């Protein structure tokens, strides 16, 4: 009886440690992948906050200006915050990654900034409180040349203008 | 602000020999067989030597000029300047009458000789081009200018020799305007810079207080149009290089970018971005009338006129991806011309009119290539991690572009440099700049 109980405990410990180590290895390998869905950045590394729980930026897929579900969620939070702080105006900065021609990226950044602006307008923020500026690929936040860095740079950032 | 182009040259022919020479360079094949040429140092007498030291701080402006010529001819890839150590004849004697056997012995096929004098604050340069195999003079010219202009004299001699031996205009007496880059990738400081085509005489035209991009010369190379983020309003500007005066182009309620002059110099063509959509517009520089050229919900940008001003090439993502299109100058008859695999951008019409140079992205690699104006005959000249924005030499023979290196995960190892490549795909070489550099634009030929 005693023997079988201690055996069972040992067995459990081994089993548990196997699970834990499996989790640990899984965690390290997915650490990078976990920050991107498709090629849209989903992490929080470079994100700043306009207010508690209100992220300042949203991320885009390569060559895209479509807002993801998560981006729309972020922008709704921004809209709520802007409604509550009606004296604040914002500039939406549009950015692109380094893997495109300079002039096209300027246009792409403008398109992304406007996608974010339009969504804020849909949620009741007056257009004259929001201006846009495109920096194309001129102002990356992450200077690496790899897919994760590029995903952090394909973004629009809402910045207080006053 | 900076007086660059106002110096006039007195050029006169003092001898012309219309001989049917034996040397001729086949420039359609590239640099497989560069022509062996001897550039004898230009001879300078003792009095001029004194003046050269006084006025230019140069021991021997004659040999300095010949070095400029030698370097130009070498970088063209079409000539092989021979080592001066092998020269058997002294510069002054060679200039009067070369002993052709001596030059043939060192395998020279052509010889440049000359003489410089500096007197009364004037630099006088005469030079002769000799055909060694035929044993006769091919060309003789003399120039008078201010001594400080000595490098330009070297460039003009290079152009004359290039033209005489290839049958095409040269591109050495030209300048490059570009964006000088410094600092970390995330906070790059960019300035407009201008330099001679061979990398000398760099001058900075802006201070770096605001972001500047994509400068381009007008046909006389006295004006530049570029994008500036002055006061955080990205707009196309016009800069007079000689006077330093600047003005915003047009009165647009949003970002204007990707500017370029029409080849007749009368208009600026550019993109205007409004509500997420970029279209192509022109502004007439005389009457300030703005015309909308494209009207499409896609991104239309990087416009470039054909040399006869009748057509415009541009890139658009109206097919879903960035591709190259050609239309009439009024915006009608839009036709897609790029159909290869990958994305195509930054089309620039060759000054000869027959080709369009472009940037292509395919499977993570960037290419500089050329195609005919109907999109046929695509030829990729060079492949790299990142490169874009080709600009043509005024004779349509060479392309200059910029290339960026890959950063590691910590963002180290990044650089941006100018490179040039021959239309044939040969003779790829880095163009020296004082700082990192991008967005080059080649001027027209400054003399003649």
Question: Can you give a write-up of this model?
Answer:
The complex is a heterodimer of chains A (162) and B (448). With 162 residues, chain A is α+β, with helices and mostly antiparallel strands. Chain A folds into 2 domains: 1-30; 36-160, 60s Ribosomal Protein L30, Chain: A (2-Layer Sandwich), CATH 3.30.1330. Helix content of chain A is 47%, strand content 19%. Chain A is built from 4 helices and 8 strands. Chain A has helices spanning 2-33, 69-84, 102-122, 147-153, and strands at residues 36-37, 40-41, 49-51, 54-55, 57-59, 90-95, 130-136, 155-160. In chain A, the strands form 3 sheets. A 4-stranded mixed sheet of chain A has the order 5-8-6-7. A two-stranded antiparallel sheet of chain A has the order 1-2. A two-stranded antiparallel sheet of chain A has the order 3-4. In chain A, helix 2 packs across helix 3. Chain A is globular. Chain B folds into 2 domains: 10-166, TolB, N-terminal domain (Rossmann fold), CATH 3.40.50.10070; 175-442, Neuraminidase (6 Propeller). Chain B has 5 helices and 31 strands. In chain B, strands 1, 2, 3, 4, 5, 6 and 7 form a 7-stranded mixed sheet that branches. In chain B, strand 5 and strand 6 (122-131) form a beta hairpin. The longest helix of chain B has 17 residues, at 150-166. Chain A binds chain B through residues 63, 65, 98-104, 106-108, 110-111, 113-115, 118, 133-135, 138-146, 149, and chain B through 184-188, 211, 213-214, 227, 232, 234, 254-255, 257-258, 271, 273, 275-278, 299, 301-302, 315, 317, 321-322, 345-346, 359, 361, 364, 385-386, 388-389, 404, 406-411, 414, 438-439.
SSE map:
The complex is a heterodimer of chains A (162) and B (448).
Chain A: H1 2-33, E1 36-37, E2 40-41, E3 49-51, E4 54-55, E5 57-59, H2 69-84, E6 90-95, H3 102-122, E7 130-136, H4 147-153, E8 155-160
Parallel strand pairs in A: 6-7
Antiparallel strand pairs in A: 1-2, 3-4, 5-8, 6-8
Helix pairs in contact in A: 2-3
Chain B: E1 10-15, E2 35-39, E3 43-44, H1 46-56, H2 61-75, E4 79-81, H3 91-96, H4 100-105, E5 110-119, E6 122-131, E7 136-145, H5 150-166, E8 175-182, E9 189-196, E10 203-204, E11 212-217, E12 223-228, E13 235-240, E14 246-248, E15 256-261, E16 267-274, E17 277-284, E18 290-292, E19 300-305, E20 311-316, E21 323-328, E22 335-336, E23 343-349, E24 355-362, E25 365-372, E26 379-384, E27 386-392, E28 398-404, E29 416-422, E30 429-431, E31 436-442
Parallel strand pairs in B: 2-4, 2-5, 3-5
Antiparallel strand pairs in B: 1-7, 5-6, 6-7, 8-9, 8-31, 9-10, 11-12, 12-13, 13-14, 15-16, 16-17, 17-18, 19-20, 20-21, 21-22, 23-24, 24-25, 25-26, 27-28, 28-29, 29-30
Helix pairs in contact in B: 2-5
């Amino acid at each position: 009886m005693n023997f079988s109980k201690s055996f069972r405990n040992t067995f459990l410990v081994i089993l548990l440690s196997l699970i834990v180590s499996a989790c640990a290895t899984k965690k390290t390998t997915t650490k990078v992948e976990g920050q991107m869905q498709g090629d849209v950045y989903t992490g929080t590394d470079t994100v700043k906050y306009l207010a508690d729980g209100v992220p300042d930026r949203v991320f885009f897929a390569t060559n895209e200006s479509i807002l993801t579900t998560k981006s729309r969620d972020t922008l709704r939070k921004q809209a709520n915050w802007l409604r509550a702080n009606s004296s604040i105006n914002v500039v939406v900065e549009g950015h692109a990654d380094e893997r495109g021609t300079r002039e096209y990226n300027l246009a792409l950044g403008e398109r992304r900034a406007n996608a974010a602006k339009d969504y804020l307008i849909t949620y009741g923020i007056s257009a004259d409180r929001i201006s846009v500026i495109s920096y194309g690929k001129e102002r990356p936040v992450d200077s690496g040349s790899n897919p994760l860095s590029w995903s952090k740079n394909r973004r629009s950032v809402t910045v207080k203008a006053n | 602000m900076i007086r660059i182009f106002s110096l006039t040259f007195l050029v006169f022919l003092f001898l012309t020999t219309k001989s049917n020479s034996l040397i001729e360079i086949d420039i359609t094949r590239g640099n497989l067989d560069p022509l062996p040429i001897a550039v004898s140092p230009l001879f300078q007498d003792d009095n001029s030597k004194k003046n050269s030291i006084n006025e230019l701080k140069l021991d021997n402006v004659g040999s300095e000029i010949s070095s400029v010529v030698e370097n130009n001819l070498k970088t063209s890839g079409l000539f092989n300047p021979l080592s001066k150590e092998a020269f058997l004849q002294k510069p002054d004697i060679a200039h009067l009458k070369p002993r052709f056997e001596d030059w043939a012995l060192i395998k020279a096929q052509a010889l440049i000789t000359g003489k410089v004098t500096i007197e009364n604050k004037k630099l006088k340069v005469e030079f002769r081009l000799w055909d060694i195999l035929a044993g006769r003079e091919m060309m003789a010219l003399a120039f008078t200018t201010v001594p400080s202009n000595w490098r330009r004299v070297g460039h003009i001699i290079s152009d004359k020799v290039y033209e005489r031996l290839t049958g095409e205009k040269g591109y050495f007496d030209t300048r490059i305007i570009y964006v000088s880059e410094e600092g970390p990738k995330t906070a790059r400081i960019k300035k407009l810079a201008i330099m001679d085509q061979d990398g000398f005489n760099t001058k900075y035209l802006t201070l770096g207080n605001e972001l500047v991009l994509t400068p381009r010369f007008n046909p006389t190379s006295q004006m530049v149009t570029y994008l500036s983020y002055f006061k955080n309003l990205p707009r196309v500007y016009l800069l007079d290089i000689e006077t330093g005066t600047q003005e915003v182009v047009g009165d647009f309620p949003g970002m204007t970018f990707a500017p370029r002059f029409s080849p007749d110099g009368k208009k600026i063509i550019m993109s205007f971005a409004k509500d997420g959509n970029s279209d192509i517009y022109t502004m007439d520089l005389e009457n300030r009338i703005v015309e909308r050229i494209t009207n499409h919900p896609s991104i239309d940008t990087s416009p470039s006129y054909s040399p006869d001003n009748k057509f415009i090439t541009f890139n658009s993502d109206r097919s879903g991806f960035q591709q190259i299109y050609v239309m009439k100058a009024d915006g009608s008859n839009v036709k897609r011309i790029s159909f290869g695999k990958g994305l195509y951008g930054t089309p620039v019409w060759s000054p000869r009119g027959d080709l369009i140079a472009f940037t292509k992205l395919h499977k993570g690699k960037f290419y500089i290539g050329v195609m005919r104006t109907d999109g046929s005959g695509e030829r990729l000249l060079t492949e790299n991690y990142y490169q874009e924005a080709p600009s043509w030499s005024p004779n349509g023979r060479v392309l200059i572009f910029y290339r960026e290196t890959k950063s590691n995960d910590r963002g180290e190892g990044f650089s941006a440099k100018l490179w040039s490549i021959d239309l044939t795909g040969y003779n790829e070489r880095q163009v020296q700049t004082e700082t990192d550099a991008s967005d080059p634009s080649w001027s027209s030929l400054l003399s003649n």
